[in-house]
Amino acid sequence: MKQIPGSEILSEEAPPYTPLKGKTVLLGITGGIAAYKAADYSKKIKALGARVIPVMTKHATEFLSPITFAALTGEKVYTDLFCAESAESIPHIKLARSAGLFLVLPATANILSKAANGLADDFLSTLLLAFSGQTLFFPSMNPSMYTHPATQANIERLKILGYKVIEPETGETACGERGQGRLAEWSVVREAILKAISSQTLRGMNVLVSAGPTREYLDPVRYISNRSSGVMGYAMAMVALRRGARVTLVSGPVSIPPPPGIEIYSMENAGEMEDIIVKLSQDAHVIIMTAAVADYTPSAKADQKIKKDTPELHLDLVRTNDILSQLVKSRRGRQIIVGFCAETQDLKAQALKKIRLKGPDLLIANDVSQPDAGFDVPNNRVLIVSANGDVEDLPLLHKEEIGEKVWDRIQDLLTDD
């Protein structure tokens, strides 16, 4: 936990983020060099709360030992369709009925062909036929093999059959060639998994989210800003995407990689954010304003770097427009608008005052003076304040879990409409 110098760390610790808790995930590993990534991913999937059961093809065991996956997952690794010690339980049927999600990672051209055509000649391909839940394939192979018409035809057939195929990355592959064929990065795999387990309750909705800080320049090299990392806003955007929404993200300067599957507009100052948000708001069903927009901006920006010619520098600052209030005043139809506010004292009183003054449907308030929540950390502790004055106090949670709970409240408002 990060500690601010001179402050005391609060005793409360946020529980780990485990959206897969209580779920069993089958992990099919096939014979490709990317099997080594599957070992790393298996550990990360388990860290999300899932029970991970590895199933390896014979060729996969040539790249990594089953012992590796057994150690990382804490589970027996299945490799042989004809196993005398468990023949009475018909393992491939038992496993198929025990899990809710099946990941084939890496998925070679061979397993794509087998699955697309219903072939079952080993444990993994037989298990795929017996499994009736959601199955995700993550292809990884030589670029020429991936773009081959036969492979592409198999991928299209898999989609027709109801399977999900996550495209591989483009870059240099293990064979030294460049092209599309690298196994998807963990961030993409993670989002595909979390979307697969999420109810698509926002399908058909357009969601607009703002995130991060703004920078108000004094001269070409100096600016006024704040400590917002953008993590909370990005979490709100990703949860909406997982639930089926079309998401547009307007982001200030942050160090977070762009979320896969989200249209993103990058900007710097409050004026730019206002222009973009107002324009995009016309098509949005839900607007989430998590961005920490500067309240003041310099009245003028110096053309050149300000020199240290005098012992004092006086700045003239002017108020920026309140984007949240502006959105509420120009609200379209039954548009839902949610604001965020950061405070350092009297959190509840300040939040109730702001929701009355600005008029959003919900206001999410957090105390950023606490070292274990708010700025610069993955956790948050917030109040969810509704327009009628009701206040829900959420404990310290991972920001993605905060996002899920806020979206639950938003969906209650959508249902009421």
What does this structure look like?
By secondary structure, the chain is of the alpha/beta class. It folds into 2 domains: 24-197, Rossmann fold (3-Layer(aba) Sandwich); 206-297 and 316-416, CoaB-like (Rossmann fold), CATH 3.40.50.10300. 32% of the residues lie in helices and 22% in strands. The protein contains 13 helices and 21 strands. Helix 1 runs parallel beside helix 2 and helix 8 (186-197) packs across helix 9. The longest helix has 18 residues, at 399-416. The radius of gyration is 25 Å and the shape is elongated. Residues 1-11 have low confidence and may be disordered.
Task: Report the uncertain regions.
Answer: 1-11
Our Rg estimate from Cα atoms comes to: 25 Å
Question: Portion of residues in helices?
Answer: 25-40%
Structural class: alpha/beta
Overall mean confidence score, pLDDT: 93
Whole-number tally of structural domains: 2
Corresponding CATH superfamily of the largest domain: CoaB-like
Structural shape:
elongated
Classified by CATH, the class of the largest domain is: Alpha Beta
Summed up, the helix count is 13
DSSP, total strands: 21
Q: What is the CATH T-level topology of the largest domain? A: Rossmann fold
* CATH architectural label of the largest domain: 3-Layer(aba) Sandwich
C-alpha termini separation: 41 Å
Oligomeric assembly: single chain
Beta-strand proportion: 15-25%
Biggest sheet, open or closed, and with what strands and sense?
8 strands, mixed
Spatial ordering of strands, largest sheet: 12-11-8-13-16-17-19-20
